[in-house]
């Protein structure tokens, strides 16, 4: 089995991609709410960066609970 770990050469930290995050969440039986899933789909379609997506999610989560 060949494991390819994406690792930053400069600081030696691992990079957790959305695909890997989804696999970990599936094992832990965690699921996104419909509202957050819609926000993520929209942000990907708009081509937002990871930081911009996180900011958008924080704004939406604090706005309506």
Model description:
This protein is 57% helix and 0% strand. The chain is mainly alpha-helical and 65 residues long. The chain has one domain (18-63). Helix 2 (34-46) packs antiparallel against helix 3.
Determine the oligomeric state from the structure. single chain
Mean pLDDT across every amino acid position: 81
Shape designation: globular
Largest sheet: none
How widely separated are the two ends? 43 Å
List keywords for this structure.
mainly alpha, 3 helices, 57% helix
Give the helices and strands, then pairings.
Elements: H1 18-27, H2 34-46, H3 50-63
Summarize the structure.
This protein is mostly helical and 65 residues long.
